[in-house]
Amino acid sequence: MRRLLFLNGIKAFEAAARTGSFAGAGAELNVSAAAVSRMVHLLEDRLGVGLFERKANRLAMTPAGRAYQSGLTPIFDALASLTAQVTASSGVRVLTIGVGPTFAMRWLIPRLADFRKHAPDIDVRITTGGAAAPFGDDWSCGIKLGDGEWPGLVAEPLFAADLVPVCAPRLAQQLKRPGDLRGPSLLRVAHSPGDWPSWLKASGVARITARGPEFQFYGQALQAAVDGLGIAMGIRPYIDDDIAAGRLVAPFALTVPKGMQWYLVYRSFQTEQRDFAAFRRWIMRSAAGPTVRDKGRKKIAEM
C-alpha cells in the first residue's frame, strides 16, 4: 500500500527548496510565507528529519533536504506534464522549446519547416530567453550554451561553439593575415567580452584590441557584419546559413574553442513522450550536418 505523508507539506517544501525561500514558495502556491513555513515544519516533524537550516537571511537545505528535493522536483515536473497531456485537446500535440533569441532566429526557425515535414501534427511553440534563463516549467526541452551541467536535467551535446571571425565578402578581400585586423573594425558582443581577446591571442596578434561598435546579441553583430560595418566574431551554428549563402565568409582558417557547447536540455521523463522523441531525433540529425566554414574559405579563394 502506498504511504504518502502530508502532500501539502511536501509541495510546500519542494517549492521552497526550488525557489530558495518561503516567500518565493508562497508566491508560487498563493499562500503566505508563514503558511509555507508552518507546513514545512509540520512535514519535518512527521518525517523526523530536518530539511532546512533556518538562517538569518536565507534558507539552507540539510543533506536530507537536498536528497529529498532532488527526487521530488522531477516527480512534480512529470506530474505537471502528464496533467497537461491528459487535459489537452486530443487533436493538439504541443512541443514547447526554450531557446535564446539569436539561436531561434539564426538556426532553429529557418529549419522548422523541415521538422514540420517529419511531424506535421506537432504544434511547435518557441519561448525565448537568454543563456541565464531558468528551465521553464512548461518547456518540453531547451537549447542552451554552457558546460553541460544543469542539475536535474539531461544535457546532450549538439554543436561545438568554436569562434571564428566573419565578415562580408568584399571586406574579406582586404584580410590576408590576422595582422591586417584593426581594432575599430572589430564588432563586439556585450555579454561575451572574452571572444576577441581569446581569438587574437591564439592568432598571435594579442596587441590588437577590439574597439568597434558593441551589440547586445550575436545576431545583431552578425547582421552588422553582413551589412559591411565590420568584422564580427562568429560562433557556430549562428554563422552556418550566412556562410552557406555567401553573405558572410571566414577569412582565416584559425578557429578557437569558446570553452562551451550547445546542448539539448530536457527532463529525463521526456524521453517517454513521442512528440519530444520526434524532435530529439530530428535535431540530433540536423546538428550532425557538415560544418560550412570550409565553404566560406573556398568562396574567398574563388574571388
UniProtKB/TrEMBL annotation:
Superkingdom of this protein's organism: Bacteria
HTH lysR-type domain ranges (all copies): 7-62
GO BP terms, alphabetized: DNA-templated transcription
InterPro entries linked to this entry: LysR-type_TF_proteobact-type (IPR058163), LysR_HTH_N (IPR000847), LysR_subst-bd (IPR005119), WH-like_DNA-bd_sf (IPR036388), WH_DNA-bd_sf (IPR036390)
GO molecular function annotations of the record: DNA-binding transcription factor activity; sequence-specific DNA binding
CDD domains reported in the protein's UniProt record: PBP2_GcdR_TrpI_HvrB_AmpR_like (cd08432)
Segments passing through the bilayer: none
A Pfam family: HTH_1
Keyword Transcription: yes
Annotated keywords: DNA-binding, Transcription, Transcription regulation
Protein function: NodD regulates the expression of the nodABCFE genes which encode other nodulation proteins. NodD is also a negative regulator of its own expression. Binds flavonoids as inducers.
PANTHER family, per database record: HTH-TYPE TRANSCRIPTIONAL REGULATOR, HTH-TYPE TRANSCRIPTIONAL REGULATOR TRPI
Homology family: Belongs to the LysR transcriptional regulatory family.
Record protein name field: LysR family transcriptional regulator
Protein's organism: Bradyrhizobium sediminis
